[in-house]
Amino acid sequence: MTSEAVSFECLDGIPEILPYGIRNEDYKENGHLLRSWMDVLNLENGIPFYKLRASTEDETEVTQFESGHFTMSWNDQGDLLPVLVDMENIFAYDTSLQEAELFKRESIEKLLSKENITANKLPGYFTGARYTLEPSETCTIYSLFGHTADVKTVNAWAGSIDLIDFARVSFKESISIVEKITDDIQTKSGEPVFDQYCRQSYLDNVMRGGYPITLGDKRENIFYVFQESMETKKETTTSFQFHLNTILRAMGISEM
After folding, report:
1. pLDDT band for position 164 (cuts 50, 70, 90)
2. Average pLDDT of the segment spanning 132-160
3. Which residues pair with 79 in a beta bridge?
4. Which residues, other chains included, contact 142 with Cβ-Cβ below 8 Å and sequence gap of 6+?
5. 198 and 246 part of one domain
6. Per-residue pLDDT at 251
7. Domain assignment of residue 172, yes or no
8. Alpha-carbon gap, residue 225 to 126, rounded angstroms
9. CB-based burial of residue 174 (10 Å sphere; 0-12 exposed, 13-18 middle, 19+ buried)?
């Protein structure tokens, strides 16, 4: 692209994350109220942990949440990158989250040094850095979004693995899984784009309706994996449900 070194700043992430414990439909109906239960923990370790402080149902018993969603990013050296979860530090007055008004006029270092308000507001997740690349040099930001039983688990996990190797292995594994699933509809035509379209359409239907696999020696019991119950105004996709003992019997395991 150029024979000279290029310096630039970048931000990467998503502007809104619903903390664990909130259903999408509940947030649509009572979004402002539910914000008063939202919390983001663990910023000091570079792995934001999103959850509600307690249950929000109108019940006599209140329960605390230990589980939560987490996010983390790292660079080519496997070092965790600094994070922003307070979107006002990026978008300022633009509540539509379309224009990064502060990022336009302030350095990445200044943005990352700002205090994050982590309670009682809808959080997001961005990471950023300043890079200087020589000709033909590249840089990569790796980001992971997940869910775990508690914050201690993800901290221990992140500190015990090689993040670069994890990203490399996971990327290859995800490609292999998708290819294995869509091999059922492998198409060879004069248009490679059409061939890939067939695979993608098939994958979309699998993720919505489930992928049937047979269990047991007689292969009489069918179980749908990757199944998701999905309802929209235009369509209703069946949610396949099986009693646990039915699955265990099919696998030759005694009932529980």
Report:
1. very high
2. 92
3. none
4. 73, 74, 75, 163, 164, 167
5. yes
6. 44
7. no
8. 32
9. exposed
- For residue 35, give the 3-state DSSP assignment: helix
pLDDT digits (tens, 9 = 90+) for 196-233: 999 999 998 888 888 888 887 776 778 877 655 444 44
- 154 and 57 within one domain: yes
Q: Are residues 202 and 108 in the same domain?
A: no
Task: State the Cα–Cα distance between residues 252 and 256, nearest whole angstrom.
Answer: 12
Question: Greater confidence, 235 or 134?
Answer: 134
- Rounded CA separation 130/150 (Å): 32
Inter-residue contact 166 to 40 (CB < 8 Å)? no
Is 171 contained in some domain?
A: no
Structural domain boundaries enclosing 20: 6-161
Instruction: Name the token pair of 130.
Output: 């300043």
What pLDDT digit, counting tens, does each position of 92-107 carry?
A: 999 999 999 999 999 9
User: How many domains does the structure of the chain reveal?
Assistant: 2
CA neighbours closer than 13 Å in the CB half-sphere of residue 20: 21
Looking from the CA of 241 toward its CB, the CA atoms found within 13 Å total 4
Same domain, yes or no, for 91 and 17?
Answer: yes
Q: What is the DSSP code string of 154-205? A: HHHHHTTS-HHHHHHHHHHHHHHHHHHHHGGG----S-HHHHHHHHHHHHHH
- What percent of the chain has pLDDT above 90? 59
